[in-house]
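Can't attach files on this board, so I'm pasting raw text. These are the components:
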Amino acid sequence: MSKRKSKESSSANGECISQVQRILRERFCHHHATGKPFGIEHQYRHLLELLKRTTVHGESNSALIIGPRGSGKTMLLNHVLKELMEIKQVRENLLEVHLNGLLQTNDKVALKEITRQLHLENVVGDKVFGSFAENLAFLLEALRKGDRTSSCPVLFILDEFDLFVHHKNQTLLYNLFDVSQSAQTPVTVIGLTCRQDILELLEKRVKSRFSHRQIYLMNSFDFKQYIKIFKEQLSLPAEFLDESFAQKWNNNVQHLSEDKTVQDMLQNLFHYSKDLRSLHLLLMLALSNVTVHHPLITASDLHEASKQYRMDSKANIVHGLSVLEICLIIAMKHLNDVYEGEPFNFQMVYNEFQKFMQRKAHCMYNFEKPVVMKAFEHLLQLELVKPIERPSVRAQREYLLMKLLLDNNQIMDALQAYPNCPTDVKQWATSSLSWL
Amino acid sequence: MSPPPFAPPPPPVPFPAGGLAVTAWNWERERGDMSTCSVSKGCFVFKPSPKKRRVSPKTADYFREGNNDSEDSGLRFATCQSLWKQIKSETEQIQEELNKQLFDNLVSFLRRSHSEFQEKTTEWTCRMKSREIPTAALVLGVNVTDHDLTFKSLSEVLQNNITPYVALLQAKDCPGIKNLMQKLMGQLMNCYIDVDSSDEEDCVQVSQNRIRCSMASLISWYENITKKTDSETPSKKRTSSRHLQSPPVVVIFKDMESFTTKVLQDFLVISSQHIRELPLILIFGIATSPMIIHSLLPHSVSSLLCIELFQSLSCKEHLSTIIDKLLLTTQFAFKLSEKVLQVLINIFLYHDFSVQNFIKGFQLCIVEHFCSQPLSVLCCRLVEAKKRVNSLSHSQCENVRRLPSFRRYVESQVSEKQIALLTADNFLKEVIQKLLEDLHVYHENYVPVLRCLHVFTSSLPKYPLGKQIRELHCACLENRVWETEEYESSLQLARMLNKSDLVTMLQKCVEIFASSSGKEFDKVVEKLKEFLTQFQKLEVAGACQERGESVSSQKELQKKTDLYHLQKTLLELKESRRSKKLTKFEMLRFEVVDFIDNLVRNYLVPADHKTLHEIMYFNTASALREHLNAAPRIALHTALNNPYCYLKNRALKSDGGTISNKAPDICIVYKLHLECGRLINLVDWLEAFSTVVMAVEGPNAAASDQVDDIIHARFIRAVSELELLGFIKPSKQKTDHVARLTWGGC
Amino acid sequence: MPNLEHPAYPAATLLRLESLVPCRESQVSMLLSIFGERQQFTFPSIFIYGHTSSGKTYVMQTLLNTLQLPHVFVNCVEYFTSRLLLEEILIQLQNCSSETKHASHVLCDTFNDFVRMFKQAVTSQDLQDQTLYIVLDRAEQLREMEANILPAFLRLQELTDRNVTVVLLSEIVWELFRPSTGCFEPFTLYFPDYSIGHLQKILSHNHPPEYSADFYAAYINILLGVFYMVCRDLKELQHLAALNFSKYCEPVVRGEANERDTRKLWKNIEPHLKKAMQTVYLREISSSQWERLQRDDGEPGQLKGLSAHAHVELPYYSKFLLIAAYLASYNPVRTDKRFFLKHHGKIKKTNFMKKHEKTSNHLLGPKPFPLDRLLAILYSIVDNRVAPTANIFSQITSLVTLQLLSLVGHNDQLDGPRYKCTVSLDFIRAIARTVNFDIIKYLYDFL
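---
Top answer:
Structure tokens for the assembled complex are below.
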């Protein structure tokens, strides 16, 4: 009986857990669609206003949304559009064109994409256009039905705006801004970019046609708000199927947010980057540990996650090297110390290594030069060492000039962590005795 | 029509064309069967068949240019052609024989590695050890020009024995992995079409839809092609049985050194991932040494390969076989004189180890000879030559009379015979026939004796007469070999040889002579055999102490290094011999050596002591040298510095360092620039130029110090020509200067 | 160790999975928990890095296959252009949608098309309700392709608005991938290298059927003792183990020793392995040759490795050209006078030897030199005079094609081309010996 009950509850519990997982994962990993904006009500209203004017009063316009990565540009836009769509008139005749700098790598592709998104392939058919402008004009013409007011507004959204700048003559941008100025079809161009200096990148003729409306998203919140965000992100919505569990969960979250260690950890993260994505990543990691047997997130989960998150990858790689390879790295370190970071070649490294071997290496046999070379190549392959000039077709490999991409304390830390490293190697690393 | 065997010699005809026609006609009648007779037809003024006309006059003309009278040009050309054809086929055959060993090894390697590839993976080790790509590192030597032939025949061999799927890749076609894949797939797909051209639509379809040049598509191609061959009609089975089951795909990298690391790396990594689906076998064509593999590929990549080494015959050995087969034989009437041979060999040894070039040079010699020497018409098989002698025209006879060797011969005769020789053509012809016969006999004897001598010299310490037979050959051609002290010393050494060596040598000699076609060697053989039997007889205890002694002296010889000391000891030994009487063995040994010496003196007379040798021997080395070993820089310099030597214009003759203004502008400019330093000031240069050019117009012209436009223009043109030649280039340091790129700047 | 558990998958499958991935349980469980249930969202992009043969590829493959998650697995080295890559992904999508392998020809030039076709492919089948995984092995190659490819892949989930996760596998750390303008940061996961214990375990895991497990384990122990210092590559070690095992068994087979007395066995195998490190490990001797050698147990000495055949036959003048080139590229210009001028007056050794150069040229490598210097040196070291014939020049170029010399920088032949000599000291000494020219006397470093 009791067993059955427990089983019962556990199954229900399992149900809840998977619910939790589903909801929160949505939130953390799919945020651009679902997330919630924070402390940007002002920009929100501004953008909404702008778009309303286009869609409702048919004014053309152009604006840039500028903010660092993960500051929620896309999210903002999505929310505005969602709200906009609630207006019936808009829903009926607003046309959206979503472009992305990563996808439309040149104007030809972009134009095709525009045509496609406006469902005008059949209209265009296989017409041949003299210029890009003509083509665009034709498209908009095709959209126009009746007089100016009744022609349906078009909303161009250019994600990764800065990439469009590199297109030949910035033709696309020029034309879009151009139509957005000329009072024909109501056209609004919204660009999203993470580059502050975006305006400098625009050509003069393009720049002059841009309305210079810029919406900045600096995630400008202090730590208190950050904590708040943390809580909101983690807590379950009211409409969760199992109130009791939701209760438990949210309380737990509340506790976490008050926990000192957690706060310190968050503090670190906050200083490291205010970017919400990193927070999401962290939470996601923590969340992934939540199971039936382990229903609530604990502080330790968060700490684990942060450790995982803050791992130094290079140190990891070094940790995996063979002793010989470590020796080579140490040799390079010494070379760097002596020649103040001048580039070096394999021959020098080998020389250095030989010195060490002759002086005080009893732990290992003397390796053939090719063997050492093989080890060196492995380092090269891992890009811990990088050739400074493009390896020309035929330079002897032992004379290629290299740079070490590790700094001294990275090496030292790695050595400390290195499992059963021979003592005299350690000594050699610390003291550059071999130079006396 | 069947002509009488001996057509009556035609009367001497005053005008050459007719004579030519007649001779050609005669010759035509005699050997109408010859394939190249068409060429001789070209010499007829009447009834030309249109096709021939286009070809033959040209070729014949070249030969006419050879000398002012166009004696037998057509015939000479024909002979030249046929001779070259023979030689060519000969050389190719040699090539094949030489490569055979190597190819056999390769084939067996491919078979082995492929069988390993196919062995069941159930066996533990096969499962454990990682699959490597079987790779043959084929070291071919630095004579890159010869490689193409080798690869051609190699791929043929492979296609006959191993697999239809052979691809040859060249570095210059594969700058990137993409191109490499394209080339590879292109070749393979085509060869697939070759395999069975029954289904055209397949290959069409292949060519039509553009091939995604990725390993995946290659694999799919391989899969369905092997499926096809497995499920093919029994008639096809035979062909496939010749190949292996599911034949491997062989990829040959012709010039490993020139491939870039990136390309190879990518290709190897990719193909090693699919080695199970696509049985790939690589062949690296290496010119230098297998080290290149390691210096080219990082170990992470080279550890994907299972490399085995194959080395081709060294080109030196190759050359000596060629010489052996082409020069040291009576098969071909055409011979090289010592100097010419030296030139060819030097080019080979000093510059390029290329056997092909050597053969090309040989070809050039042939053409030169037949082109320049009108009498070369007689340079053919003896019987043929004799016939041709009959039909020699008068002027040809005159040519014969002009030959220095013939002159010498005439002078050696009694007076009335001299007159006969110099006046009566018919008599002359008979004599010529006789002489030719002598020459032929001489050759027949020369070769075996030379070999025999080589048997001795090649086993002496320090090789006084050279190790290779070609060196000996040169020595003999150069002058009377027995008058050289190398020969002396080698005889001395030969007198020290111990018994066993001596016997073996004699046996060798016997073989040589027995196999030779020379008539009068029967006696020689007899003699040698007799010697051998005598040595047998010497098995009495009496000889022991000398034996010991001779051995000891032998020891001494080994110790003595340089020739000088050697001879000293020899003399001493002689002395010691004098003192005590010679033993039987020593007597015999002396006899043998003397006998050999006799042979040499009789048969190894240098060719240019022989009458009419000019007919057979090509000896204008200078021409050859300037063809094969040109010095462009020097030529340019002389052309510009001393235009007379090319233009042959009187006006330019006056050349005492002064610059004549008659010379072409570029010459003047060049000469002037020779006096400048690294950087040349254009203005000064122009000044100097104009003064030189104006020199003729006396002082008044000089007075007007501003240069007129014509001269300026000429100057500019000349300078730009120099730049085009790469002697100067605009310099960055100073705008109004040009940098001088030639040597000897002050 | 934690044995795997996950609500989404039956325990049996998980057990099988665990048995398949020895020493990688923690990573697998990590991945499982991150992936969550089939339909749940997970990180848009995951970046897995770790050393060569630390099981990245293997683990991903086994994981996805045993759990039958819908996935696409592509190796970026093999599909070396973006077009090939994208097309391959689409093809695989089609295949995993319908088992009937219709290799319909997809044409996809740009990422734009890719996204569109990708959406179609996904909607065309029952993939909406579960996460689709796109695994890109050897992801470092993506950096060679167009600049937009890598960032686009990282944001694929957003761009396609489908439940898709891109997994990148590489040996190289993420820092070296990040483009200058930044991009969507993936979740990075580290696969640590196998510890020696791990290696021991895995290697001895599949022992040959005819021998006992611990016998083989002992062998592996010795093997690691020799090679662990230099090489931790599992594949390589396994290869070596397979190659040399027969040798190890020899005494047992001969009946000279039983499987117990390890001392004897060790004495037998240890030198052999040392030898192997210098030969097979470097592919000096091919594995097949090595095996043949063992079969008819010949002494490894008798079979010469590739490097043994270093000697190159060269024409007479080529040899001197090469020597001249070597001298030109390893001697300072100012020393030429002293070396090659017959009567170089009294150049004092003291002021000639400027010892302030603390590193020898043989440490720094060859320096480029102009053609004229080469020829000048050539003329002075060849005793009989050389005419500057065409052949000489053609030899220089052929030396370049043979990679014994290398043409430096812009190959504008007009203003004097500059060369480098790319042969080793040993090589040139061998060459010099054949023309008995004592090169050491002419090298500045050895004065």
